[in-house]
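Changelog note: in this version the structure field was regenerated for every chain. One regenerated record is shown below for reference.
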Amino acid sequence: MILPIVAYGDPVLKKEGTDIDKDYPKLNELIDNMFETMYNAYGVGLAAPQIGLPIRLFVIDTTPFSEDEDLTKDEQAALVDFKKVFINATIIKEEGAEWAFNEGCLSIPDVREDVFRKPEITIEYQDENFETHVETYSGLIARVIQHEYDHIDGILFTEKLSTLKKRLIKGRLDNISKGKIKVDYKMRFPNQKKKR
């Protein structure tokens, strides 16, 4: 089932997510719905707060990035079929010299800005079967994980921008929170006036 994606301005996007266990209600159905919602919106990652749930869960499928012609063959190969569920994740380490990449977010449509992040991470998480993994990722996969991980910590990519950039996009962010934007996927806007 395709769920509405929560728009910028909704308080749930600023909440730190709580851990869940294998008894979380209808977890497999929720994970399936999150992937379906993400694919419908042409995303490569989706965190539970983006569908209104303040829990430590996000899903990623970087396959669409593998078609980027600006990437090397090795980078493209790493992105193909990288599809994972991350539950109760903790980033243990972030390493390397920060690099910029133009990021966007399904909760903040039509806003894209360069964000600086470290190129390599080590993360501990549980998969959908609640098996624990500690893995190291680099490049675009690390970046997508960091972006989604920020969501479960209540952080949006716009918070990582300079004060000037924040001022320049403020009007667009206000319009998103009011629902004054056209999107081709289901969204839930926090400040949209209800129609009578």
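Spot check on this record: Residues 5-188 form a domain with the Peptide Deformylase fold (CATH 3.90.45.10). The CA atoms of residues 40 and 86 lie 20 Å apart.
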